[in-house]
Write a structure and sequence with these properties.
heterodimer, A: 731 residues, alpha+beta, Cytochrome Bc1 Complex, Chain D, domain 2, Jelly Rolls, 5 domains, 9-stranded antiparallel beta sheet, 5-stranded antiparallel beta sheet, 25 helices, 18 strands, 30% helix, globular, disordered N terminus, B: 813 residues, mainly beta, 11-stranded antiparallel beta sheet, 4 helices, 55 strands, elongated
């Protein structure tokens, strides 16, 4: 049976680097590695205190069971609600709430458990529903550190005391929604870690211990505390990304260097060399009304009144003088390149995020894609090519990922876009650069955008936060807004900003990686290419509608990535420095998001309840088992893994229908626990996998003569063999 | 060893040709020893294991396959292929190996060589997708891929240039089979009206090795015949006339060709590099015996060869070699089986012990099974054997395996008729005769070889069934390219279901469009079903209930203009992905009917196998509006890729054989199972009926009313597949065409009075390609059952389903 060997210990392996693969360090007290110093505990900035005993779950906390009505179901949101509460009881006061994907939590010792709360020992409540298609039975268990109790449909079924779990008996689950509540008290020392697992032994429907599947989890979207928490977070993000502080300063008496929220560092794109990169007429139109060119633009309207057009021309003329000699490629029209560019546009998945039609007035297209209709109007050809190659040069926080395009690829794409996007805008009157420079200062452009000439930092206007939201930037009508910039905010964005401004703003001094990843995955539209939590990637739908009839490639599902890959590997991948080439057949390529890589990777791991270096159960290398593993991968007396999988330089015998990934790097890339879960139930983790699952009956494979037929032992042996493959990688 | 030890007499009309150039295309082939060393290097472990295994196997006196004469260069096809070749190995003095390949389509010796046998390359040998085996050693003679015998003086290939596949027309020539004798084989065929026996051999005289071919020509319609002896490089022939004493001037190689024992007027001719033998009409009643001797060697040995040539023996009476050879596979293997538990379920699986280790190092992967009247089984292996299995008694303690033959071309179907074993091979249907009663086949009679064969590795041909009138049925897949997508050269026989009349003379295609249908069934009333496998134009595996003339999916094999845009509906589709339960059937096997009435609830039912997931399904079916429809439910799981099954009524037992040949979850190379009925409750669905707003599921045994009427115990979903040239298809919701499954709402569940039939009220039920009904119920005796039915609704009320390219459409009936 699948059990954690020492479930009460967070096992930090120091396998990476030159260290011994698979060796462990002991208990939580000394579980930190040199490379990951714990962040210093922040000073308490709030008067809130935890009333009850830290680290203890209240004994009598039977949750109230709410049968979801159709009305409640209609407002369900995916995942669970994570609430931080004062005390652990059923009627505990909710201090903060947010939605989470997994029934999991990971807060490094001393780090904040929530951006909205000061760090410190906490009580949390994970609540929601597990959806079942059929009456059934499952067993549950809690893994982590601290104390927890798990309730299913109001009944306590499993618990964890000081990190030691007591697994549930078989729990009946009914068809439909089963209420799940986990009461959790983080440990007084060490990381707060919690993961909820389940398994089923039912005939024709059994599965091994695995984390609760995120697409079976639902939370009440009508929960007040959840709405409040989500509004505050949306406002917090807008506050940062709209650069509110550039004009208004930080709330309260916060110092900029005490702020940890990464997006606060984000500015509007640099306008250095704007004169070389952007076309005058596009600049004018953009300055007057950004949303007319891009409905989803965040840039506000800063010019109001009858002179707006003229002023915009002046600012554009000023920007036109920003030519410091950026070396731009001499892009020429070339029909053949355009054709190759079209193929590239398809294989790289550009269409998953972009379309080429003229944008509708105030809405995005049905897939929520950004129009590229105006690229010719916006860019000089060489500037477009340069941008495609280095999208982050002038805007490190741009969502546009870096595809590591070769120069010829950028040329081809540029040519394709030149040939297929809209034309340049009609030429308008040119303005005065001198006047424009003045306006650039006056209108506050320089608060968000830097230019080369802008050597002295413009003083912040320090406009006070409005006491009422009916005036200034957040006003609903033009009159009340006056000369303040118009941000064209939606109602929910307005509500969010207001909710955030009602807080003390101290959340800007904290960051929780799991919250960061939550919002960045949305912002970066990872779902455009990767299926996640049961939501099919958008590219698939786009291809169905606009494609040539050939299927797009299956890109790895993102649902499990936080648990599947070691944090460092996720980071390297996002950083663009690491390419396994494991899926050698893919024409698409993983682009890079270097600005976000580190925190996003950590957040993804934490979403799954895993710490950065945590790899529970990873066994120490065993050369004898590795030999057995080698046999097991073969075709004579093995599972024929080698039929489809390359193993470093050693090629697959004959992949058919679909290639297998190169396993050379697998044992260095994967968390062992996920590897084992995958082997035990491939399609539960990726229903579209082409990997043929190995049939297991009562924990045994058909190869009964090897290691007693014990599937887990056999898979462990394969793991050991995979560890030896690393040096074989190459070519 | 000289094969012919008769009196020595010089041959007349010796022809000696000098070669300016070496005409040995195989000259760069590595000697076998070198090959082995190379293969032992790390980097090819598993292909290597397979190759070694294939090379070690004792194939007996012949090995049928598609052969190429030389390895083609990259991106080029070999210019000389014997699509239906029979390679014959010879042992020469001094432990030298030699071989010949006889092309049974063109009736020619494609290649004659010394110094090795063949390179065991290709899907059945080393698993490689693409290559075919080829000679190893020094090639002595070859012929071009054109007819080996002339018709009315014509030696041109009569087949269309762009479709040069299949045997020669019957009135030209026809292959009839081969006889095994102690020293090799004799090929039998007709040319025009004449019956011919053709015996290849090597003869060594004074250290010189000659390839000798003895022809026995029965008197027939008296047309003079020409046969191609060899094709030589025309530039090597100094004098194009029929002359003696034409020697090489220096260096290079020489060729000697001569014949003896022939009727008068027999003569050799050189025509543009071709060496032809002209044989006059055979007059009178006496058969002619002609022996042709051929020698290639270094010029310095030319004189020796000339002297040795004179000593070559006279032709023998070849008919003496068609009476059966001495038993060759004399050792039988005894195995012990395991009996399944008798007290657990209605159906229990006995495993017959398999001689994985055997004296012939034969690779046991089973492709066909049938039974003799006395209960013995004949089982074919993918590597070319047929084994006779006896001792299939209750205990399976003492099962004897006797190798009946080897060397067949991937036999994946066996049918025994009047105790004569018929096998379906890639190159045709053969009857196996034991002429001398020693338990081994001596005569491999070609029953029909009209099916077209190409060099593609994946154009497997599957199963062999008969109807009550004695007609045969089998099915052939498409030429899938290496890698799995797209096709190699397509012939009109690809993706076709065949009917062959009981005399073996008329072969017709009765349905088209199959991709890789690993198995068919013919029911007691002539019902024909096939499976198929996901891939190009096959969105997922179907079970097809065949209508003659029907089209079942792969547009490229439809042989219709314009190409079809609708395919005939299958009885049901089976999902490959069945989330969250894992794969359901990624690769279908064959089907089988349970005849008689003693096999419990499965009596009379049609069963289907999954090769890929090693399972046996019960097929729930009904005919609605002239269209069959239904679904499947899993009955049993196995540990190898079950794909052929026979129900033996006499034993009241279902036998299945299995292999691991291509992708499967199987972990064993072969399986031989016996499924018995124990009399215990089966607790499985045995009937499915669909009507507007309603589904009825009938179980083998009574259910508990409480659970059966609780809606929480059912979950129904539906989806469809897109039938396109893509490899497989995702699942789409009929409601909005997005990826995923639609939930089918069940309003009520009612149990019938006998407790066996559940009626589900499903308002708004529509025809759909795939539906899944999961259930978790209790039987009346308290046993819990949780399983699912996967079904298809083709016709429902006034509506029916059409499968169009890229979409399912519900149209009025």
């Amino acid at each position: 049976m699948f059990r954690l060997r020492r479930p009460w210990v967070v096992l930090f392996s120091v396998w990476f680097g030159a260290a011994v693969i698979g060796s462990f360090m002991g208990c939580s007290e000394n579980a930190k590695t040199d490379t990951a110093p714990p962040p210093p505990p922040p000073k308490k900035t709030s008067t809130q205190t935890v009333k009850d005993k830290p680290g203890v779950v209240e004994p009598d906390t039977t949750p109230k069971v709410v049968e979801p009505t159709a009305e409640i179901i209609a407002k369900f949101q995916p995942g669970l609600a994570l609430k931080f509460v004062e005390g652990g009881g059923a009627d505990a006061k909710v201090l903060d709430a947010r939605g989470i994907r997994m029934a999991a939590l990971q807060v490094p010792s001393g780090a904040a458990q929530s951006t909205m709360l000061p760090a410190g020992p906490f009580h949390a409540l994970l609540s929601g529903y597990i959806k079942q298609n059929l009456n059934g039975e499952c067993s549950f268990k809690l893994v982590g550190l601290g104390n927890a109790k798990l309730y299913i449909n109001g009944k306590m079924v499993a618990s964890m005391t000081d990190g030691v779990g007591k697994d549930s008996a078989v729990v009946p689950l009914k068809q439909g929604y089963n209420q799940i509540d986990v009461r959790y008290a983080g440990p007084t020392q060490g990381d707060a870690t919690l993961r909820v697992y389940w398994k089923s032994d039912e005939q024709n429907s059994s599965f091994s211990w695995e984390p609760l599947q995120p697409n079976a989890l639902f939370a009440r979207g009508d929960d007040d505390s959840l709405i409040k928490g989500q509004d505050e977070r949306e406002g917090r993000l807008l506050f940062a990304t709209l650069n509110c502080a550039q004009c208004h300063g930080l709330p309260g008496k916060l110092k900029e260097d005490s702020c940890k929220m990464p997006e606060l560092k984000q500015r509007g794109p640099s306008l250095e060399n704007a004169g070389q990169r952007f076309q005058q007429d596009w600049l004018v139109e953009w300055i007057v009304d950004p949303q007319s060119l891009r409905p989803e633009a965040t840039m506000p309207h800063v010019l109001h009144g009858p002179d707006a057009q003229k002023e915009a021309a002046d600012i554009a003329a000023y920007l036109g003088t920003q030519k410091e000699g950026l070396p731009l490629p001499a892009t020429k029209e070339d029909g053949e390149q355009a054709e190759r560019g079209q193929k590239l546009y398809q294989t790289l998945g550009c269409a998953a995020c972009h379309h080429l039609e003229e944008p509708a007035e105030d809405k995005m297209d049905e897939f929520g894609r950004l129009s590229l209709y105006y690229v010719n109007a916006k860019y000089a050809p060489g500037a477009l090519e340069d941008y495609l190659r280095r999208p982050h040069d002038h805007n490190p926080w741009s969502r546009m990922p870096e595809f590591r395009l070769k120069p010829e690829e950028a040329q081809e794409l540029t040519n394709f876009l030149m040939a297929n996007a809209g034309d340049e805008l009609d030429p308008g009157k040119r303005g005065s650069a001198k006047n424009g420079q003045k306006l650039f200062e006056e209108k506050g452009c320089a608060q968000c955008h830097s230019t080369k000439q802008d050597t002295t930092q413009t003083a912040k206007p320090n406009v006070a936060f409005p006491k009422v939201f009916s005036k200034g930037c957040l006003a609903d009508d033009d009159k009340e807004r006056g000369k303040a910039p118009a941000f064209m905010l939606s109602a929910s964005q307005q509500r969010g900003l207001r909710a955030f401004l009602a807080t003390d703003g101290s959340s800007l001094t904290r960051e929780v990686p799991a919250e960061f990843s939550h919002r960045q995955v949305k912002l970066l539209q990872c779902n455009a290419c990767h299926t996640r939590d049961g939501v099919t990637n958008r590219w698939f739908g786009v291809n169905e509608k606009e494609g040539t009839g050939t299927q797009i490639e299956y890109l790895p599902h993102l649902t499990w990535v936080g648990q599947k890959l070691l944090t460092e590997r996720i980071e390297n991948m996002l950083d663009g420095v690491y390419e396994t080439g494991a899926r050698h057949w893919l024409k698409a390529r993983m682009p890079a998001f270097p600005t976000r890589a580190k925190l996003l990777a950590l957040g993804l791991s934490q979403e799954h309840g895993f710490a950065e270096f945590e790899d529970p159960q990873r066994p120490a290398f065993d050369s004898v088992l590795a030999e057995v593993g080698k046999e097991l991968m073969g075709q004579v007396g093995g599972f024929s893994c080698a039929q489809c999988h390359d193993r470093g330089k050693e090629k697959a015998v004959q992949p058919f229908g679909s290639d297998g990934i190169n396993l050379a790097d697998a044992a260095q890339r994967l968390r062992y626990e996920f590897y084992m879960q995958w082997m035990m139930g491939t399609t539960r983790f990726d229903p579209t996998t082409k990997m043929v699952p190995i049939p297991i009956t009562n924990g045994k494979t058909a190869l009964t003569e090897v290691l007693d037929g014990d599937a887990r032992r056999q898979y462990e042996a394969i793991w050991h063999y995979m560890q030896t493959l690393r040096e074989m990688k190459g070519n | 060893m000289a094969l012919l030890h008769q009196q020595v007499r010089s041959l007349a009309n010796i022809l000696l040709l000098s070669l300016g150039k070496v005409i040995i295309p195989m000259s760069k082939t590595l000697p076998a020893g070198v090959l082995v060393i190379l293969l032992l290097l790390p980097g090819a472990a598993t292909a290597q294991q397979k190759k070694e295994r294939s090379a070690q196997m004792d194939y007996g006196p012949f090995l049928a396959a598609t052969y190429i004469n030389a390895k083609p260069k990259k991106n080029k096809t070999a210019d000389d292929i014997a699509y239906r070749g029979v390679a014959v190995p010879f042992d020469l003095p001094g432990d030298v190996k030699a071989g010949v390949i006889f092309d049974t389509e063109m009736l020619r010796y494609m290649s004659v060589w010394t110094g090795g046998f063949i390179k065991y390359e290709g899907v059945v040998f080393d698993g490689a997708h693409g290559p075919n085996p080829s000679p190893v050693g020094k090639v002595q003679f070859t012929t071009k891929p054109t007819p080996g015998w002339a018709k009315d003086g014509n030696l041109n290939d009569p087949r269309p240039k762009d479709m040069a596949f299949g045997p020669l027309p019957r009135d030209w020539a026809r292959y009839k089979g081969l006889y095994r004798h102690d020293g090799g084989v004799v090929f039998e065929y007709t040319v025009g009206g004449a019956s011919i026996l053709d015996m290849p051999a090597f003869e060594t005289q004074d250290g010189q090795t000659f390839f000798c071919r003895t022809l026995h020509i029965e008197p027939g319609k008296g047309v003079p015949q020409q046969l191609v002896v060899a094709d030589l490089d025309p530039t090597s022939i100094k004098d194009g006339t029929n002359v003696v004493n034409l020697l090489a001037s220096k260096g290079g190689e020489d060729v000697w060709i001569g014949f003896g024992g022939a009727p008068p007027k027999t003569h050799l001719e050189i025509r543009g590099g071709r060496v032809l033998l002209h044989i006059p009409a055979i007059e009178g009643r006496k058969a002619a015996q002609i022996k042709i001797g051929q020698w290639t060697g270094k010029s310095e040995n030319s004189a020796k060869a000339q002297q040795a040539f004179a000593k070559i023996s006279n032709p023998l009476n070849v008919t003496a070699f068609t009476k059966g050879g001495k038993a060759r596979f004399t050792e039988t293997v005894t195995t012990k089986g395991t009996r399944g538990a008798d007290n657990k379920g209605a159906y229990t699986i006995d495993s017959v012990g398999i001689p994985f280790t055997n004296p012939y190092k034969s690779w046991m992967r089973f492709g066909g099974v049938d039974f003799f009247s006395d209960g013995r089984a004949a089982i074919s292996t993918w590597s070319g054997d047929v084994w006779i299995v006896s001792g299939l008694d209750d205990g399976l303690e003492n099962v004897k395996w006797k190798r009946f033959t080897a060397g067949l071309f991937q036999p994946l179907g066996v049918k025994i008729i009047k105790d004569v074993v018929h096998v379906l091979c890639r190159d045709g249907v053969y009857k196996l005769h034991d002429l001398n009663g020693d338990g081994e086949a001596d005569h491999i009679e070609c029953f029909n070889n009209d099916v077209l064969v190409t060099s593609n590795f994946h154009e497997f041909i599957f199963d062999l069934q008969t109807d009550k009138d004695g007609n045969f049925y089998f099915i052939k897949g498409g030429p899938v390219k290496p890698g799995g997508r797209g096709w190699d050269k397509i012939t009109p026989n690809h993706g076709s279901l065949f009917k062959l009349d009981s005399t073996g003379t008329k072969l017709e295609v009765i349905a088209r469009g199959f991709r890789a249908p690993n198995g068919i069934s013919v029911g007691p009333n002539g019902e024909i079903t096939t499976g198929d496998n996901e891939g190009t134009w096959t969105p997922t595996s179907p079970i097809n209930w065949i209508k003659p003339g029907g089209f079942y999916g792969v547009v490229d094999f439809a042989q219709r203009t314009p190409a079809p845009t609708i395919r005939d509906n299958p009885l049901c589709w089976l999902p490959k992905e069945n989330p969250p339960h894992g794969q359901y059937d990624n690769s279908s096997g064959g089907q089988v009917w349970i005849t008689g009435s003693k096999f419990g609830p499965l009596s009379g039912q049609l069963l289907h196998t999954s090769y890929g997931t090693c399972r046996l399904f019960n097929v729930l079916k009904e005919e609605v509006g002239g269209q069959m429809q239904g679904g499947v439910v899993e009955v049993l799981k196995f540990d190898s890729g079950v794909c052929r099954a026979r129900f033996v009524e006499k034993q009241n037992a279902l036998y299945l054989v299995a292999l691991r040949g291509w992708q499967t979850t199987a972990t064993k190379d072969a399986g031989f199972y016996r499924v018995r009925y124990t009399g215990k409750p089966a607790n499985i669905p045995v009937g499915l009926h669909v009507e507007p707003d309603k589904m009825q599921l009938t179980f083998s045994d009574p259910l508990s009313k409480k659970e059966a009427e609780d809606l929480g115990n059912y979950n129904a979903e539906c989806w469809y597949y897109k039938w396109t040239s893509n490899y497989g298809s995702p699942h789409f919701k009929p409601s909005n065409n997005k990826e995923g499954h639609d939930t089918v709402t069940i309003k009520s569940a009612t149990l019938s009075a006998d407790g066996k039939t559940v009626t589900l009220s499903v308002p708004g039920l529509k025809p759909v390609m795939q539906m899944r009904v999961e259930y978790k119920l209790k039987m009346a005796d308290g046993t819990s059952v949780r399983s699912m039915v996967l079904n298809t609704i083709n016709v429902l009320g006034n509506e029916r389903l059409e499968v169009h390219v890229g979409a399912q459409k519900v149209v009025p009936k």
